Amino acid sequence: MTEPRVQPLVGTTALVTGGGRGIGQAIALRLAQSGARVVIAARSADQLEATAARVRQEGGVVLSVVADVTNVRDVTRLMEAADEFGPVDLLVNNAASAHTSGPLWQSDPDHWWQDLRGLLENPFRCLHAVLPGMLTRHRGAIINIASEAGAGPSPLLPAYSVGKTALIRLTEVLALQLHGTGVSTFAVNPGFVHTAMVEHAAQDRWAGSQFREWIEQGHAVPPERAANLVGELATGAWDGLSGCYVSVGDDLSALLRRRGDTEGLRTLRLRR
To answer: Which CATH number do you get for residue 41?
Structure first.
């Protein structure tokens, strides 16, 4: 990952969920390079320590907290630990999971709702915890890691697709409620990143063949692309796009120029 020439996030505190590996790890590294004090949370202590070691090796400041962000007590403990670095200025909701595949009528309902809980309750609990402080300070940003599977229907991992769609809509609704407060929010599509979750999907009975084909055809993009986009959005320079669904590779300047054209912005719309 190329180190930024400037450090626009010096003096800020960033919290990254799912920060132990993959996209979350890349985001944590990028934010630390930009000068932020980074708090990373995940369920695996070993993965968190590996990320923390990389951040420190590059001269960054990091705090790792083992936490399951579906658990309200863990979220409370996480926020208390983050206070060591000061109030959270940037929340990156990256933690997610996807285990349910195949036809809806053949799925285990409990597993379905477990997936949806992880995709929607995780970010809700975290943003619910940090927003009051952001609103008091009149500044802050919440970045939700979404997916192309949420922008359009995906039959391969249906619970994941539905959950990510809900997360994109949540971002839009939140942006409307936050208008004029100094707090922004974005839904970021990181692209097809070859993460552990993708590797798991590649072995799945229903979705495996398609995921293996995408991997073999070289469709995967490096997680650093999503990390760089998050780093850009975190600077505040693109707050005019608050509420938008933004993908890696998007021209942010072009999107900002079109902000007056609501049909032109990347918002979630039903497809006929």
So the answer is: 3.40.50.720
Provide the residue range defining the domain that includes 53. Answer: 13-193+222-247
pLDDT in tens, 224-249: 999 999 999 999 999 999 999 999 99
**pLDDT tens digits, residue range 20-66?**
999 999 999 999 999 999 999 999 999 999 999 999 999 999 999 99
Tell me if 76 sits within 8 A of 82, measured CB to CB: no
Q: How far is CA 139 from the centre of its chain?
A: 19
Active site residues: 160
In this prediction the pTM is: 0.90
Residue at token pair 């790792």: 64
How many domains does the chain divide into?
A: 1
CB 27 within 8 A of CB 16: yes
Residue 41 to residue 45: CA distance in whole angstroms: 9
Pick from 268, 271, 229, 250: nearest CA to 151: 268
> Cβ–Cβ contacts within 10 Å for residue 61, how many?
14
Which run of H or of E encompasses 17? strand 13-17
Give the span between the Cα atoms of 209 and 108, in whole angstroms.
22
